[in-house]
Amino acid sequence: MANIKSAKTRIKRNKKREKINLDRLNAVRTEEKKARKAIAAGDKEAAKTAVKSAEAALARAAGKGTVHKKTASRHTSRLVQALKKLFS
């Protein structure tokens, strides 16, 4: 257990940030899952909006540092590729 006041404060902050990051990551995963389901169902319009929403969530998470930028880019790329396959 921390004895120094700044260390105690840092522990509190870290817990808050961890919760925020986990919530944001769960939101990203949910959006990705919705997009994949829409693509699998073959619903073009729903898939297009779901992929756009997932793309935005990934970009937001990458911008905030929750997810690495290249990871977000890779996930976005794979979703868009799957969407393009649906339209071809």
Summarize this entry quickly.
The protein is mainly alpha-helical. It has 3 helices and no strands.
Explain what the structure shows.
- The structure is a single chain.
- The protein has 88 residues and is mostly helical.
- It has a single domain, classed as Up-down Bundle (Methane Monooxygenase Hydroxylase, Chain G, domain 1), CATH 1.20.58.110.
- 88% of the residues lie in helices and 0% in strands.
- It has three helices and no strands.
- The protein has helices at 5-41, 44-64, 69-87.
- The protein is elongated, with a radius of gyration of 17 Å.
- The termini are far apart.
- 23% of the residues are buried.
Task: Write the SSE topology.
Blueprint (H helix, E strand, L loop, with lengths): L4 H37 L2 H21 L4 H19 L1
Helix pairs in contact: 1-2, 1-3, 2-3
Gyration radius over CA: 17 Å
Helix percent band: over 70%
Write down the CATH class.
Mainly Alpha
- Helical/strand content category: mainly alpha
Note the run of SSEs as H and E: HHH
